[in-house]
Specification:
It is built from 7 helices and no strands. It is mainly alpha-helical. The protein has a single domain, classed as CDP-alcohol phosphotransferase transmembrane (TM) domain (Four Helix Bundle (Hemerythrin (Met), subunit A)), CATH 1.20.120.1760. α2 runs parallel beside α4. The longest helix is centred in the C-terminal third of the chain and has 30 residues.
């Protein structure tokens, strides 16, 4: 919700820097894959937290890097004239793998209750699916719902940083993320219902 409103301002701030990336040959798909790599690296940090608590702030930093790259790839595609159906597909699939890998790693590492971890994975995937299915039917979903992907990533990164001091905070953060994700799905379902009733 907040992320959609701020997206246009963010793009205006970074457009000149993104054009510089395009001028050196960096492609949107490369940025997408770098973001996916950062998410997998974050997942590895979660799995390795018992070796050092410093893995938790490292995971938070990698999550934020992944989110930044996810925002940049679309801007780069439009600025360089390389927007394509393939790029959009790759971006969407990469985001789903990123979400699933990070949340699954948190659950497997014992940093949250397994049931809440599963609920968070399912909720995150369903938020995306609800939007894709609605937009395929001609109903826009931009800014609909409490927790779009950017909000969920920021929540998880904040909870991860706090977990460096108090480990159980990450479990609470995952539980809150799960609740917000499923509420977002319900909000999108309600919006879809209202819009289709008008037709």
């Amino acid at each position: 919700m907040v992320s959609s409103r701020l997206k246009q301002k963010f793009e205006g701030l970074i457009i000149s820097r993104v054009r510089a990336l395009a001028s050196v040959g960096l492609t949107p798909n490369t940025v997408t894959l770098l973001g996916l790599t950062a998410s997998f690296a974050a997942a590895w940090c979660y799995l390795s937290w018992r070796a050092s608590r410093l893995m938790l702030p490292a995971a938070a930093a990698l999550l934020l890097l992944s989110g930044l790259l996810d925002a940049v790839d679309g801007v780069l595609a439009r600025a360089s004239g390389r927007a394509s159906a393939l790029g959009g597909f790759l971006d969407s699939v990469s985001d789903r793998y990123s979400d699933a890998a990070v949340l699954a790693a948190i659950a497997v590492a014992g940093l949250c209750d397994a049931a809440w971890g599963l609920a968070a994975v399912v909720g995150s995937l369903m938020v995306s699916y609800a939007r894709a299915r609605a937009e395929a039917a001609g109903v826009g979903m931009a800014a609909v719902g409490l927790a779009e992907r950017a909000e969920r990533m920021l929540l998880l990164a904040a909870a991860t940083l706090a977990a460096y001091l108090r480990l159980e905070i990450l479990g609470w953060g995952v539980a809150l993320l799960a609740v917000l994700a499923h509420l977002t799905v319900l909000q999108r379902a309600h919006h879809f219902y209202k819009e289709t009733r008008k037709r």
